[in-house]
From TrEMBL:
Record protein name field: ABC transporter permease
TM regions (residue ranges): 47-69, 81-101, 128-149, 185-210, 217-236, 271-292
Domain of life, per lineage: Bacteria
Keywords, in A-Z order: Membrane, Transmembrane, Transmembrane helix
Length: 297
């Protein structure tokens, strides 16, 4: 477009009269979501990390199920075999949660992201929604497949009379057979998926706070593994109360409770632990929003 020529002596008003042929549209959260979805699905780290998670969860679950089929009575809830693969597979989701943020800081791409979307809170919200949705769907699908395999392979166990007095198996025996009720299916699939996805979201928050991949991943490994490891070495009787506390509130015990086999010997269904994890994650995300708004890139 050719700008009009101003009259001699008149002020130059080209900027005021020029109209861009490119339509101007206010950006929204939907645009940020589309951008983050494009980024997370096109990088190789996402594909490899989630592929490893699927292989580990389903593969180890099948191996555990195969080992259990060699016994007439396993003595554990029908769907509990899925826990062992998920205990390792969750580490892949945690790693991906950190990389969603820290990979952009390490490459400098975060400057381009904030230039395209100056609202930093919108960027973090979009990252959190896209990552949480992807990790939840993927993890739940893996847990669902493992649960179906366990149910098909182990539902014909012969239950001894002594099993009826076992508090762990009390709700898993019906008409002399090991069964899984609706609550157990929900916990071993949707509940486990939510638990791991929340751990991944917590990792995303820690990554935002630290902005360093190795540091954030190490911190999350400590959060997930350290409480239980420390508890295993607390032999002194004076430390038993602390040991029981660490086991009860460890992330691995929360995940095991979703499969109705809590490590502290209780009868928790895992949902209270999931609620506690959600609160901790919300606090960490609030801190991430505050730091992201104040700190320079």
């Amino acid at each position: 477009m050719t700008a009009p020529v101003p009259a001699p002596g008149a002020p130059y008003t080209y900027a005021q009269q020029y109209t861009s042929p490119i339509p101007v549209q206010n950006t929204t959260l939907a645009h940020a979501l589309k951008s983050e979805w494009t980024k997370i699905r096109t990088v190789r780290s996402t594909v490899w990390t989630l592929s490893v998670m699927l292989v580990v969860v389903i593969g180890i679950g099948m191996l555990v199920t195969l080992a259990m089929t060699n016994s007439d009575y396993v003595g554990a809830p029908l769907l509990s075999g899925g826990l062992f693969g998920l205990m390792l597979g969750q580490l892949a989701v945690i790693t991906l949660g950190v990389l969603v943020v820290t990979s952009e800081y390490s490459t400098g791409m975060i400057r381009t992201t904030f230039t395209a979307c100056p609202s930093r809170s919108r960027v973090l919200t979009a990252k959190a929604i896209v990552f949480f949705g992807l990790s939840f769907v993927t993890t739940t699908a893996a847990c669902g497949i493992t649960a179906l395999i366990n149910s098909a392979a182990l539902s014909d166990q012969k239950v001894p009379s002594s099993a009826y007095e076992d508090s762990v198996m009390r709700d898993s025996i019906e008409a002399g057979k090991v069964v899984a009720h609706g609550g157990q299916w929900l916990g071993a699939t949707v509940g486990a998926g939510l638990f791991v996805a929340l751990l991944g979201l917590l990792s995303l928050a820690i990554g935002t706070l630290l902005r360093h991949s190795a540091g954030a991943i190490t911190a999350m490994m400590g959060v997930v593994l350290l409480p239980l490891i420390l508890a295993l070495f607390m032999f002194a009787e004076s430390m038993h109360s602390l040991r029981d506390f660490l086991i009860k509130y460890s992330a691995l015990n929360g995940l095991a409770s979703m499969y109705r086999i809590p490590m502290d010997g209780g009868t928790s269904t895992g949902w209270p632990g999931l609620g506690l994890l959600a609160i901790i994650t919300a606090i960490a995300m609030a801190g991430a929003y505050a730091v992201l708004a104040k700190r320079d890139v």
